[in-house]
Amino acid sequence: MPLEPKAADFPRIRGALTFYQVSSIITGVLLLLLCAEMLIKYVFQYELEMGGPQGFLAFVPRDTVVAVNLSTGILIAHGWFYVVYLFSDFRLWSLMRWPFGRFVLIALGGVVPFLSFFVEVRIARQVRAYLARRESEDQQLVEAPH
């Protein structure tokens, strides 16, 4: 019999779900920005520069950035938010007591473009349905005559 979350953990699960949803959206957006940045950098041979002689924001030929390299900034930001995303994935996974394969599937959402958006919607729907079902079952047990 698989382990199930404890009813006492339901408020923590809701908090973990919200944290996961926020980190999923941020990581997904940063991954899309990273993909666009890689396309611009390696196909069109440009990088995004901020505060350089070309103006506040400008595309400059690759390897000629003299100010803040936003291309590198996007890469670093996605990397750090992916770590936060993995933490939120682990927290929700452990509270829900899911099998390890589900943890890996959710983790892939932060490295496959667009996947985090689809996985986030599906996971949120599953968790909310599970919590609603368990709470109604628990309520019925309390109300049942003895």
UniProtKB/TrEMBL annotation:
Listed GO CC annotations: plasma membrane
Ranges annotated as spanning the membrane: 20-44, 65-88, 100-119
Record keywords, A-Z: Cell membrane, Membrane, Transmembrane, Transmembrane helix
Keyword Membrane assigned: yes
Subcellular location field: Cell membrane
InterPro entries: DUF3817_TM (IPR023845)
Segments forming domain DUF3817: 17-125
Domain of life: Bacteria
Membrane-topology descriptor: Multi-pass membrane protein
Primary subcellular site in the record, as a coarse category: membrane
Residue ranges that the Swiss-Prot or TrEMBL entry lists as coiled coil: none
Pfam family, one: DUF3817
NCBIfam families listed in its UniProt record: integ_memb_HG
Protein name: Integral membrane protein
